[in-house]
Amino acid sequence: MNNSSLFSETVITDRGKRALDRLKEVFSASDLPAGWTAFAASDNGINDLYMNLNRQLGEGKLERKTKLLIAVAVASAKGSADAVQFFGRAAVASGRTAIDVMEAIGAATTCSMFNGYYRFKDQIPEEDRATFEAFKAPFNANVFVKPALSLLENEAICIAVSSLNGCHKCVAGHIAKGKTVGLTDEQIDEIIRAGAAAAAAAQVALALGTPFPTAR
Question: What pLDDT score does 4 carry?
Answer without folding.
Answer: 54
